[in-house]
Amino acid sequence: MTRTPDQLIDFDALLTEEERMIRDTVRGFCDERLRPHVADWFEAHDIPDDLGPAFGEIGVLGMHLEGYGCAGTSAVAYGLACLELEAVDSGLRSFVSVQGSLAMYAIHRWGSEEQRNHWLPEMAAGRAIGCFGLTEPDFGSNPAGMRTTARRDGGDWVLDGAKTWITNGSRADVAVVWARVDEGYAGFLVERGTPGFTTHDIGRKMSLRASITSELVLEGVRVPDSARLPGATSLRGPLSCLNEARFGITFGALGAARDCIEQTLDYVAAREVFDKPLAAYQLTQAKLADMVLELDKGLLLALQLGRMKDAGRLPHQAISLGKLNSTREALAIARTCRTLLGASGITTEYSPIRHANNLESVLTYEGTAEMHQLIIGQELTGEAAFR
Ligand code: TGC
Ligand code: FAD
């Protein structure tokens, strides 16, 4: 009998020894430090304060970046870490994605040497937390319309506007804030406590409850020119960071799917209906077979994208294929697993409904499924159908 859903395709044989070692280290950390507590964090709509340093200790924060205290692993190894984290909860993978792929990547790619030296080692260790403020109340899918502005005032910049749905916004020591400037768009490092900068957490979430989501308000926030990311002058700045996070999600969402299938395999073996195990019914097996097929296809696509990324030839349109496929299929798998668990599936005693609710956010953030269809559509036809 196959023990894990990816054994049929011998997925491990496609990984290097180092990739398997990193994956197993993260999996061990997840089993010991995260999985026993995650249902409580989800229930409490909160995460512990020491998560950052704990992630820093195992080296997953900015792990695919080079230098400045970062591990410099392959993209595939980073993807596998995301997969293991999201097998626990999408909110925990989000913490790592936002820190490493969005905030740290923005500083690494577009920042000055001084900014890199100041922030990256602290962020890699989880002693400093970052957030990434792109979305605004009226501009989510279309960040080009943003209203947040930064205007020059002597040697300083003055920022006004609001960002919303910002992961870790109120926990962050530094917010990467994207704003409109006379010449286009620019990114700024706004430190917590800067006068005029406030945050408010968004409550009553039914999804990503083991994650903090906040609004950022900027009212006449004055920062020096040294807080501007000097390399970013157009929307390419923030969109290049999204590529990194979307790549991580391509692997990550499949972790949530794997966890749902594993829990469901155990459940259907133990649950007796009409005098025999639920696992022994053809309708159950058809669902299981289809889910494992989608998971394994998703893993092969994710790995191919990872190999292309490590070879330096991954177009952002191909990342859209991965983000769209993994989130859409993982959500379908989580919902199907929920059906197999019957009434038991509606409580957080079992993971599928928590994963399904989380995956609603994952389908939406980092570009909605529709945005990724449009990006792929534009690549195929040459026609931009966004506007
Ligand atoms: P467009 O005119 O196509 O491009 C503007 C400039 O950007 C460049 N570009 C890219 N560069 C790098 N990577 C990409 N993926 C890029 N896509 C475009 C382009 O070459 C151009 O550069 P330049 O220098 O010539 O000016 O832009 P557009 O305004 O038409 O928008 C295109 C569209 C709709 C695809 C884009 O706006 C988009 O992707 N929208 C979705 C927004 C989104 O994904 N937001 C995510 C916010 S962060 C988040 O959700 C975090 S969730 C927490 C977690 O990750 O766990
Ligand atoms: P809208 O853009 O209003 O879209 C609503 C619907 O319209 C969607 O179905 C969309 O696909 C569709 N639509 C939009 N345009 C078109 C079109 N041209 N054609 C057809 N359909 C269209 N943002 C950050 O900047 N940083 C973060 O850290 C962050 N974290 C997040 C955490 C969570 C839990 C969530 C839920 C969101 C987070 N976001 C973050 C915001 C996220 O990126 C946005 O929610 C997302 O980009 C979609 O924007 P919107 O919610 O404004 O939806």
Automatic annotation (TrEMBL):
Cofactor(s) required, per the database record: FAD
Domain Acyl-CoA dehydrogenase/oxidase C-terminal: 240-380
Keyword RNA-binding in annotation: no
Protein name: Acyl-CoA dehydrogenase
Record SUPFAM superfamilies: Acyl-CoA dehydrogenase C-terminal domain-like (SSF47203), Acyl-CoA dehydrogenase NM domain-like (SSF56645)
Key words of the record: FAD, Flavoprotein, Oxidoreductase, Transit peptide
Annotated ranges, domain Acyl-CoA dehydrogenase/oxidase N-terminal: 16-126
Every Acyl-CoA oxidase/dehydrogenase middle domain range: 131-221
Family: Belongs to the acyl-CoA dehydrogenase family.
Highest rank taxon of the organism: Bacteria
GO MF annotations in UniProt: fatty-acyl-CoA binding; flavin adenine dinucleotide binding; glutaryl-CoA dehydrogenase activity
Keyword rRNA processing: no
Signal peptide, first to last residue: none
Biological processes, Gene Ontology terms: fatty acid beta-oxidation using acyl-CoA dehydrogenase; fatty-acyl-CoA biosynthetic process
